[in-house]
Design a protein that fits this description.
By secondary structure, the chain is mainly β. It is built from no helices and 10 strands. The strands form 3 sheets. Strands 4-10-9-6 form a 4-stranded mixed β-sheet, with no helix packed on it. Strands 1-2-3 form a 3-stranded antiparallel β-sheet, with no helix packed on it.
Length: 171
Amino acid sequence: SLSADGKTLVVGARFNNGNGEQAGHARIFRMSPDADSLSVNAEIVSIDVTPVNDAPTLNPTSNLVLPEDSLTQIIDITGITAGGGENQPLRITAATSNASLIPDPSITSREALGTENRLLGFMPLPDQYGVATITVTVEDGGLDLNLDTTEDNAIFSRTFDVTVTPDTDDP
């Protein structure tokens, strides 16, 4: 590119040998003529851009209010990605804050849902009422693309509340 003053030329390769699209090494050459001569001053600047692991994404889920003795609930969990346009393996888990009301939910995937969606299923225990906070967590495989080496994995969680209202049982 040529600068606005018409005297500086910058030439370089865009992150040409890195790990990922936006990481790597670039060399920039800046050449500008001396004001009083025909010679050219040249500068070379090298830039290293280190890759980072962006946090995964997960859309919010609305709170739920259910009557006591409700049947199995199936909820769409959407917006699941590795984040930052990255393509990494993902681990999606769900946990409850109140297992005596709602045991840990299950997460399932179906090819028809696509890679950014999962189904979360749970059923309140019979004759129980109260509030349980459900935490859905997405963990990516990090820069090494390995879920088992957790040092570089990124984690993102969202919560929603499930309120189970009491029912008047017949005597």
